[in-house]
Write a structure and sequence with these properties.
By secondary structure, the protein is mainly alpha-helical. Helices cover 80% and strands 0% of the residues. It has a single domain (2-361), classed as Up-down Bundle (Growth Hormone, Chain: A). 51% of the residues are buried. Its main location: membrane.
Length: 371
């Protein structure tokens, strides 16, 4: 099961940079719509899997298809979002993914009983196709090309967004990106964030179900709590990033929310080890996910700061590293339990990665551009 879960994360990680660079080069509207259609198709194909190998293949391609979503949103934000509003934009953006996952957990538990597990994937695939149609209909790559935006708002956005230095989107070599100290530090800290978050998306549900002998639906309700906390963490962080930035403290606006977030990650993870009830353990892990998601808005805003018109590719590099961390999570949890007979080593590793992320953020500087 760890490999089934990890196949998605691996495909998602490996195709971050190519998909992000496509948005820089061809425009977010076309690329993002294509991504949504592809991930919806392979969501549905998961329901067609007939054995272990076919499930691995469908999950890998599903992850690869979805890979460019967040890098392309980041590239769109470079054109659409004033610099002083990046924090709350990214907070709202990532909170959507958390809320979707949170409400899906108990919903799917009910629907599996009613429809069977295969039909769930067809249902979500259909929703994705509808979402792709709506996105293509209403989105435009730049506010200047959107008839639904007033002239006053267009003028405000253009005046306050980060300015492109020159037209070279998609041409920044990967070698140059990976040669940036800022990018390397961003990649390392994002591994730390994704390592614990992906546990919440994958192993938390069976972990609390088995450990506390819960029913399928009860486990679903418990498992949604950390994701709701993650959504709240995104909002709090997004607001904090912008509030500090408006005071003229650009570097601090990225460093402080992320650092506080990773401190909460360490506290929440270690505290969960001392809880004897499912509610106590889940509440502590909710603190950890609240903290982990506090790092998202500053992380992606940071990539836009240093990547500018190449922010799709730069954020793709960071997200690639982060999702290699997610791939590690899917395998580390079951293998560590098998080797040690305990779940505690996994959580100690996650807490240790939180300490590493705090150190990384102390050296990250949004003033130092990649190019």
């Amino acid at each position: 099961m760890g490999w089934v879960l990890g196949a998605f994360a691996l495909g998602y990680a490996l195709f971050q940079v190519p998909a992000g660079s496509l948005g820089d080069k061809y425009g977010v509207r076309k690329v993002m719509t294509s991504i949504m259609v592809l991930w919806s198709i392979f969501t549905s194909f998961t329901g067609l899997a007939w054995n272990y190998v076919s499930m691995l293949c469908f999950r890998f391609i599903f992850g690869a298809s979805e890979a460019g979503a967040f890098p392309n949103i980041s590239r769109a934000a470079f054109s659409w979002v004033p610099t002083k509003e990046r924090g709350i934009f990214q907070g709202i953006n990532f909170s959507g993914s958390r809320l979707g996952a949170a409400f899906a957990l108990p919903l799917v538990a009910y629907l599996i009983d009613a429809w069977g597990w295969r039909n769930i994937f067809y249902f979500f695939g259909a929703i994705g196709i509808l979402g792709a149609f709506l996105f293509y209909t209403f989105f435009r790559n730049r506010p200047e090309r959107h008839n639904g935006v007033s002239d006053a708002e267009k003028e405000y956005i253009v005046k306050n967004r980060q300015q492109e230095v020159e037209k070279k989107g998609g041409n920044l070599p990967i070698k140059t990106i990976l040669g940036s100290k800022n990018v390397i530090l961003a990649m390392i800290q994002y591994v730390s964030s994704n390592f614990i978050f992906f546990f919440m998306l994958t192993w938390l549900f069976p972990y609390i179900k088995d450990k506390y002998e819960l029913t399928l639906v009860a486990a679903g309700w418990y498992a949604m709590l950390p994701l709701l906390a993650g959504a709240l963490g995104n909002w709090v962080s997004g607001y904090t990033v912008d509030a500090i930035y408006k005071k003229g403290k650009w570097k601090l606006s990225r460093q402080l929310p992320a650092t506080i977030g990773f401190i909460l990650v360490v506290i929440g993870i270690l505290s969960s080890l001392f809880m004897d009830t499912p509610l106590g353990a889940v509440l502590c892990l909710s603190v950890a996910i609240f903290g982990a998601d506090m790092s998202l808005s500053p992380s992606w805003s940071f990539c836009m700061d240093i990547g500018e018109e190449n922010s799709g590719k730069v954020s793709g590099v960071m997200n690639m590293a982060g999702n290699l961390g997610a791939f590690s999570t899917s395998l580390a949890f079951p293998y560590l339990v098998k080797w040690t007979g305990s779940t505690e080593p996994f959580f100690y590793i996650a807490a240790g990665l939180g300490f590493v992320a705090i150190i990384c953020w102390s050296f990250m500087n949004p003033d130092k551009k990649v190019n």
